[in-house]
Amino acid sequence: MSIEFRERHTTGYSFQLEVRRSGALIGHVRGGSGVYRYYRGEFNELTAEFEDRNLDRLKTKIEETEGGRP
Asked: What is the DSSP track for 3-62?
């Protein structure tokens, strides 16, 4: 299954991507202060699953982990 990253427009200075698998929202990436964090789940905003200073590297890790999940 393919993982898609869609930019989500937010107010202020934060950066956010929706993470989708086959169109369904499975998590999101938030960025700020030079660190990007992946939060698994539709409503999870407290517990980051992964974090990295490099967005492309974080995306690769998400694709490797979430791409094989049911």
From this structure: EEEEEE--STT-EEEEEEETTEEEEEEEEETTEEEEEESSS--S--SEEES-HHHHHHHH
